[in-house]
Aminoglycoside phosphotransferase domain-containing protein (Sporolactobacillus laevolacticus DSM 442), 319 residues
Amino acid sequence: MNMPDWQSLVENAYDLQIMDEPVSLFFQPINRFYHQNLDLLAQWADYLNVEKGLPICRLLRNREGQFGTEINGESWVLMSREQMRRDQGITTGMMLAELHLQSSGIDVRAFPESPANSRTKDWEDRMDALERKYEECLSRKSQSAFEQIFLNNFPYFSGCAENAIQMNVDGFIDFPNQDPVCIGHYRYSNDDHVVDENPALWVVDDRSRDLAEGLRVLVWRTAKSYHEPDVFKFLDDYESRYPLTEHVIYNMYGRLLYPLAFVECCERYFFSSNSTDQRELELLLRHCEEKAEDNEQLLSLLAQRYDGQLQVPEWLIKQ
């Protein structure tokens, strides 16, 4: 495949005279957008960037008025990123809160890919599929190294998932008035510094999604145990801009209780991996096993922080 002349392509296909500020440009494949309603994504990106001053990459239309431009048989979107940053003094927790707050109440019906209303069923289906693999591995006389680790740990992680699913079910009963959804991320990275938001990675969901992932990252990326001050700072910074409701706390806790990393690792092994991935997945599964205690400590810490606002499984109250 011949690489296109990107500069000539941009000059010919786009009218960039309307740009008031210096920007950096990059192309994003349309099939890498989680949501496909590009018109509405662009409206939200413009609003959050121009009106609210948040560091958001914007989608640019070509001369034909379309977001998609055909390049080598694939459709791409030209994106712009401001070169002058306006986020001095804002932390990642504050930035996340602003994104959630300013997009709160976004119409989930315009984004049919949203997982907001299917979380419980999705969790159940995924655990059911892994349970079938568990029974299948048990019935065999020999297992791979990965499968041995899987067999040793599945009962524990399955129990965590059952508790998380029950919290989800109880949440719909205890909180009939659901919190509004907002713009979040497919996988929130909780970087050490504020980065420009890419709408291709946005997911319309409730805000507990990003909060749980942000805390999970703090546990996952440290060599040993996470640092409590990092957890408190992230939550304090977030809540200084957008306080948590009991429902959000409840959902966040349930998401952290659900063993997402374990589930995704096992799904890759059983349903989509090739032979070259197996050693990598074995190491990843061992890491899930090693981090289980740290995650329990995090859950216990949150139970203490939100005491009186949250009912948690008894086995997590005193760790």
